[in-house]
From TrEMBL:
This is O-antigen/teichoic acid export membrane protein. Keywords: Cell membrane, Membrane, Transmembrane, Transmembrane helix. Signal peptide: none annotated. It holds the Pfam family Polysacc_synt_3.
Length: 441
């Protein structure tokens, strides 16, 4: 049974395809970052990193964890729930509007803290990317839930690759600086989001991008009770998703606020380089979360336990050459001004060695309907991040941020792996009761 589950649909090939898509995305991001660095230097790279992170964070916060809930509720048999799509669209639309309004209202504070050299009206205009990033994120996670792996991989790659040509459009029109970054980000989001939702509608067998309504589109009367169920699951998962995002990006925000965009630019480059090692773990979560949501408890536990060892060994082995190549890669790509990013990059690489196995653990916890457990563990890492960032960044700058993040990554990943190994040894009825308690609102 385990072998059939692992071979069904070629999971290994699927994980490799997802990793390849994420590598293409990183290539696109790298090329865009190099261009931004060559034009505006480390300071503009820092602002670019913040604009890619902050609007998306605001949007996700305002949709009650919908991106994390989509894959669970689009898995069979929940996919056939009456008025599911109108309910999902109502949550997403309301969140997009709320997030944009909140961003615009807070733009004077955001500009003062993170973008002190930019006019507040320009930062307010960046609020448009709250909705555009959210629409793209929901389309991408809907493809995950519908198990359109090829479509999902294409969207993942295009999400970053599209920015470079879209960034060139405002440059050609004479728009420069952070304004060009804002225009490029919003335009890229919209182009890729339209394609993502076209793929979703085609997967569902709907025409006209699902705009027909009724049983053949997104729109209709939402179901309030179903909305509460989606929000209940989503909020438990959102805590974990938000904590994961904060663990990966809080150092960027704190460093940007304390040390300024120039120091942040070098650290952002180091962080993205080290996160190459997180790609396989992310791919394992992406691929196996919907699969584990469909199979019985005992088989899901066996499959997850079997994947932990290879994932752990593979990432640990890959960390060695990645750390050794940090200096030549960063200096050649970004220039001598980014030389201080090499040591933080190597420290962050050390923090990624458990990421593959923890990706398996997250897939297991989400797939079995227990996102709250995942969130609880990730909260430990967030606490470590906050305490160490505040303690180390004022004295050590980017290196202090790297040490803080590495400690948080290793602690969180180790706890997730331990939780998987413990829960997967429990009797099936014990695990089932936990899952039922988590899923039922």
């Amino acid at each position: 049974m385990i072998r059939s589950t692992l071979r069904s649909g070629g999971p290994v090939r699927t994980v490799l395809a997802n990793c390849s898509a994420r590598l293409l995305a990183i290539l696109g991001l790298t090329l865009a970052t190099v261009l931004v660095a060559r034009i505006g230097g480390p300071a503009e790279v820092g602002e670019y990193a913040l604009l890619r992170m902050l609007p998306g964070l605001v949007g996700v916060l305002c949709v009650l964890g919908l991106p994390g809930a989509l894959a669970f509720f689009l898995a069979e048999p929940r996919r056939g729930l009456p008025r599911l799509w109108p309910t999902l669209m109502a949550i997403g639309g309301a969140g997009a509007i709320l997030g944009t309004v909140l961003w615009v209202a807070a733009s004077p504070v955001i500009a003062k803290v993170f973008f002190p050299d930019e006019p507040p009206w320009l930062i307010a205009a960046a609020g448009a990317t709250v909705a555009s990033q959210l629409v793209l994120t929901l389309g991408k996670t809907a493809l995950q839930g519908l198990e359109d792996r090829r479509g999902g991989d294409l969207v993942i790659a295009a999400e970053e690759l599209a920015f470079l040509p879209c960034f060139l459009v405002p440059l050609a029109a004479g728009i420069h600086g952070i304004a060009a970054v804002v225009v490029g980000l919003g335009l890229a989001d919209l182009v890729v989001a339209v394609d993502a939702w076209r793929r979703v509608s085609r997967r569902l067998g709907w025409r006209r991008l699902g705009l027909a309504g009724g049983a053949f589109g997104w729109w209709g009367r939402p179901d309030r009770q179903l909305g509460r169920r989606v929000a209940s699951y989503g909020l438990r998962g959102q805590v974990g998703g938000l904590i994961t995002l904060l663990n990966l990006r809080l150092d960027v925000a704190i460093l940007g606020a304390m040390a300024g965009p120039a120091v942040l630019g070098g650290y952002a480059v180091a962080s993205k380089y080290a996160e190459l090692l997180r790609l396989p773990g992310t791919a394992l979560t992406w691929v196996f979360y919907p699969r584990l949501a469909k199979i019985d408890q005992a088989e899901a536990a066996r499959v997850a336990r079997r994947m932990v060892g290879p994932a752990l060994i593979g990432i640990a082995a890959a960390a060695i050459p990645v750390a050794l190549l940090a200096s030549p890669v960063l200096r050649i790509l970004y220039g001598a001004s980014f030389g201080p990013a090499v040591t933080p990059a190597r420290v962050l690489v050390a923090g990624m060695v458990l990421a593959g196995a923890s990706g398996v653990a997250s897939a297991y916890l989400y797939g079995r309907g227990t996102p709250g457990l995942n969130s609880l563990v990730l909260g430990v890492g967030l606490a470590i991040t906050v305490v160490l960032d505040i303690s180390l960044i004022p004295r050590f700058g980017a290196l202090g941020a790297a040490v803080a993040s590495t400690a948080a990554y290793l602690s969180t990943d180790a706890l997730l792996i331990g939780l998987l190994l413990r829960l997967s040894r429990q009797p099936a009825h014990g695990r089932a009761s936990v899952a039922i308690g988590e899923v039922t609102p």
